[in-house]
Structures are given as structure tokens and as C-alpha cells.
Amino acid sequence: MTNRAKNYRVGIDIGGTFTDFALLKGDEVILHKNLSTPEDRSLGVMEGLGKLAEKEGLDLGAFLSRCDAIVHGTTVADNTLIEMNGALTGLITTEGFRDEIEYRRGYKEDIWDVRLAPPKQITPRRRRLTVPERILHDGTVHHALDEDALREACRKLRLQNVEAVAISFLFSFVNPEHERRAKEIVTQEIQNAYISASHEVLPRAPEYDRTSTTVVNAYVGPRVTGYLEKLVQRLAEGGYTKQLMVMQASGGVMTKEYIDGAPIRVLASGPAGGVIGSAHTGSAKGCPDLLCVDMGGTSYDMSLVVGGQAPAEAGWNMHHRYLIGVPMVKVETLGAGGGSVCHVNAGALEVGPKSAGSEPGPICYGRGGTEPTVTDALVMLGILSTDEGFAGGSFTLTRKGVDEAFQSIADDMGHGSAEQAAFDCWRVVNANMSQGVRRTTAGKGIDPKDLVMLAYGGNGPAFAAIQAEDLGITRVLVPKASPTFSALGTLVANPTIDEERSYIASAKALDLERIRQLWTDLSNRARKFFTDAHFAAGDIRVNYQLNMRYPGQNFSLSLDYQTDVPLGDLSFIGDDFGEHAIALFNARHMAEYNHIREHEVPEITGVRLAALVVTPSPGAAGGFTPSGKAPVAAKQRRANLGQGFAPVPVYLGKDLEPGMEVPSPAIIEETFTTIVVYPGWKAQVDDAGDYQLVKT
């Protein structure tokens, strides 16, 4: 029993509709899904852990006591920004810079949309206050902090009942003296306020990036930390004795204690888990270049993996219309999921972005929903069954009320039947997703035809092949664990700390001692958190990175200077440091932009350290070796797979073995998802038991 217990690792991902679980026991992966509990998401987590314990024949306490790790991706921060229900937040900044957060560097997401409203201000002007103080670019104090003015600003914020305060002073990333003192005073003056200081959240230039990130951190911080504290308490009461590991937007995981310092790091952590899992799976199957698509109950996420890597970028990350400066795996999101509501607007059929969520959910859930959704359309088209349990048997779908809802859509459009309206909704949501992919790949100069699609999420495999056909993609990977793939991705992710510090200088005029000191400070900080999490210092590996640009460029490129070395090993810093950095930067610039400025000397804008510990992860290898055994359909169902209604063979995933090939048209029912083999495709069960859809 003891040996088996050491193999328990649980990955959790909370979505808008379902909470997903992946239990790793040795090489075996056990999946589970249950409806999310928006009123208190920790309840849904504990409910799912209880179900996993039942599957293992254990009570919850015994199960939790035998878990080596619980790794958690959460959408709490994202939901807070989507719903704009975060903490009442104030901003204290340097006199003269009150409105910088609203100027946004003059940035507008769509310069051609004259009706595009500015983003809702987290800190409206009445809650943006300034104080006299000034630190210069070299860290010297030009004007001392006016503490009386600061206390008066606190009084004004206190009268507005602020719950969180962001502090962002000029050049605090060089000298944080004023911000530290300001934090002490705000703590005294505004009791129980959550305080977000820019030198702790994002200690680097430029000013708008740092202020925006600090403000968003203050806004979501109380919600994130409050949720995590509640979950940690429930886990401890249940019998879990280890530290909770939390997924970060950077694609790594780390302890709650580390996340508490900058809760903004969990923003988009759920989608990041799926991308990290995709990179792991694609590389193992010989597909290093991937288009990753995740269609869940609420949203459709797109991302790219190139060369087997999903790099975390720390530059211009616009997320929910605010700039987030911490490292983030790039994920684009559309309001297109199984719960996306279908409706007619001025005679035109639209799908999303409004979602039915899990409460009440789609009409077919039978939980009081009245608005037709994509999931309801799949029921109407015969792609989803109402005969057996849905989502692992948690409930059964019903057609009651679905026909009437789509007939109402047909009536609003002035033509067609309920089934035709459902098919039109299927076409619209598919077109929305395909167009979203085209925008994402075109923006990166990538032709989707050169990629392999990896589809996951509860609804991703139902649309994958038809989307791939629209995009010219001929091969699709669908992991058997696709319905809980983001949860599984958290188990692939390694404990990681990825931070940077500003340092601006010409690459030919470097203060090597200053660079050495900055990297030493970052190393010491990483060592502390890893040691507190009971990781051995000798197991920590580090990538030392530089941010560089040509003079006059607005954005820097991040490049690896030294990779996979022990923490704290800075022996590579020598007299040739600058010349080597220039060569690396020019090579990266050529690869990225196809040119270099031969007669210009680039400059360093910051140093970055990415430290990690490699932990066990589930295997993903597997090509396709034909077995010669023909699969046997369990039944037939009247369905429309894009060419009208016809009897379609339905196969059960539990009956399919590695080496089998399923011809089209066909529907494959797995426990938590449905894979559609559209006309002109075939499905292969590879050597690892995963699916590969291939264009014939």
C-alpha cells in the first residue's frame, strides 16, 4: 500500500462549467469531471476528490493522506476580470502620473472600430491619488516621500471603502525605498486592505506595464488568495498534509506561499496547463509544431507550440484588456464553448459569447436552462446521446425543451425547422472558431496547414476534424485524456519560478558585477521558495536569460544566455559576456524578424531567471501500429455530420484497442467526451491508446 500511495498525484482544473480531475497512479491516469460550484469553487474540488477516493476504494481522508501532490489550475482571477467583480481598488502613484493607467500607451485593440469603448477602469480617477516623491533612473532620491500627503491619500481612499491598494512609484524597481515605506503607512492607515506594491509584483520597466500589472494584481489578489486559503483549509481538514501546488500563467507550478506574493501569476493558469500538456504529448508523438485548441463548456482557447516548446512571454500580454507583465503562455480565447448561447440578433444568427455556464447550464442538462446552446445543438444533431449518462454518468441529457428552443430560433430567422436551426448554429460556432484560429496564426506569420492540431476539452473532439478540414490541416491528435487535458497538463508542468529584474545598458558597456548581483538575488529568492517547498537545492535547474533590443525599439526579445545549469552557478559571466550576448541576440532577431542591424549595438533591458525542478509526469509516447483487428460498432444513431441526417455507427471507447482504425462517418463515445469522425476522415487508436484523426 505504501508504494502505491507514493504514486498518487492529482491535477485539477476549474472551468466555467466543469471541474476536471486527472489522477496519476504510477503510469495509469484516472479521469473525473463534475459540475463547478460557482458559489464556492472549493466545494466542487472537494466533491471531485471524494469521487476519486471512491474509485480507489478509499475514504477521502485516507486518499488525501496518500497523495504526494495536488496541483491546481484555477480560473478565479480570469473570472474576476471577466465579471469585473474584484476588490474595490485604489492606486497611489507619483505626483504627475495619475492618469498613466488610462493613457495605455495610446493602445487600442482595434484601431478601426470607432465604437470600441475603453476598458472599464479598475481604478477610476477618484480612486487614483498621487503623492510628491521622486526617485531617479539611477536610484538616487531626488524628492523625499511626502508622508503627510500619503496619509491624506489613505484617508481619502479609506472614505471610499477601498479593499485593495496598488502602489506604483517611478523607478521603484531600481530603488524600492519609497514603496516600502508607503506600504508600511498604507498598512497602518487602511486596516485589512490588500496591498500590491509594484517592486514586489513586477520590478521592471516600463512604467505603464508595471502599473497596470500592479493594479490588476490588487484587484484580483483578495479573490485569489481568499479562494486558495479556503481550499488549503478544506484539504487540510480532509487529511492532505502536503503543500498545494498552483498552476501559473508561465506554464510552471509553485506553492500557494509563492503565489500569495503575486496572485496575478495564476491568471490564465488553466489554459496554460493544457498548452504545457500539448507540448509534452506532441513531442512524444513526433509532432513538435502544434495548433492547440481547447473547447470546454464556456470558452474556446487557441495556442501554438513550435519546436516542442510553449515559451512564456513576459512582454505585451494584453489580457481582458489590461496589460499583464508577468510571464504568460500565449493563449487566445473566444466565447465559444458548449454552453455558448445561440440567439438571433437583428435577423442574424449568433453564437456566444454569453454562456449558460453550469448553473443553470444548457437546456439538455435538465437543470432549468431555457436558452439554446451549442451542447443543445449537438443533441439535436444526434452527435450527443440522450440515452446514457453524460460527463461520466453524473447526469443524463434530455431533449425536453430543446426542440422548442431551436424552433423558436428558426421562427425568428423566418425559415427552416428546429433541426435546420441547430445545424446552422453548429456551422456558425465552427466558423467562429476557425476564423479565430486564422487570426491567431496569421498574426504570427504561420500557415495552419503546416501544423498538427491537438484537440482537447470536453467539446474539442466533437469539432476537431471539421475545423481542421476548414484550415487545411490533415492530422489531428486527440488524447484519450482530452476532456480533462488541462488538469493532466498541471501534472506535466514542473515547479517553476520565472522572474526578471530591469537593467538597461549597452551590450558593450556592461557592469558585470551588477548583472551578477541581480542574478544572485533572483537565485537566492528562488532557492528560498524551493527549499520551503522541500525541494533539494541540487535538483534545481536554471535558465539564465537576457532581455535585449536595438536602441529605439519599443519591445525586447528574451533569449537564453545559459541553460540547464545548477542554481547559483554564474561562472559563465566573463570578459566575453557582452560579445556573446550580441551574437545570441542577432541570431534571435534574424530568426524572429528576418533581419539584423549590422552596425548597431543592441542593449540589455533586463535579466531573467527561470528555475525549475523536474518532477514525474505521465507518459505520452505512441505511434500507430495497425493491428488488423476491425472495430465493432455498439449501435447506430441518426445524426447529421455535415451532410444531412443519416444512420451513423457509434463506437464505444472502451471497446477500441491500440492498432484499430475507425472509418468515417462515425461517432466515438468516450466517458467524458465524444469524438466525431467526419466524412473524409478516419480515426486511428495509437500505441498509447490515444486517437489520431487522419484526412483520407
Automatic annotation (TrEMBL):
<dbReference type="InterPro" id="IPR049517">
    <property type="entry name" value="ACX-like_C"/>
</dbReference>
<feature type="domain" description="Acetophenone carboxylase-like C-terminal">
    <location>
        <begin position="511"/>
        <end position="687"/>
    </location>
</feature>
<protein>
    <submittedName>
        <fullName>Hydantoinase/oxoprolinase family protein</fullName>
    </submittedName>
</protein>
<dbReference type="InterPro" id="IPR008040">
    <property type="entry name" value="Hydant_A_N"/>
</dbReference>
<feature type="domain" description="Hydantoinase/oxoprolinase N-terminal">
    <location>
        <begin position="9"/>
        <end position="189"/>
    </location>
</feature>
<dbReference type="InterPro" id="IPR043129">
    <property type="entry name" value="ATPase_NBD"/>
</dbReference>
<feature type="domain" description="Hydantoinase A/oxoprolinase">
    <location>
        <begin position="210"/>
        <end position="497"/>
    </location>
</feature>
<dbReference type="InterPro" id="IPR002821">
    <property type="entry name" value="Hydantoinase_A"/>
</dbReference>
<dbReference type="Pfam" id="PF01968">
    <property type="entry name" value="Hydantoinase_A"/>
</dbReference>
<dbReference type="Pfam" id="PF05378">
    <property type="entry name" value="Hydant_A_N"/>
</dbReference>
<dbReference type="Pfam" id="PF19278">
    <property type="entry name" value="Hydant_A_C"/>
</dbReference>
<dbReference type="InterPro" id="IPR045079">
    <property type="entry name" value="Oxoprolinase-like"/>
</dbReference>
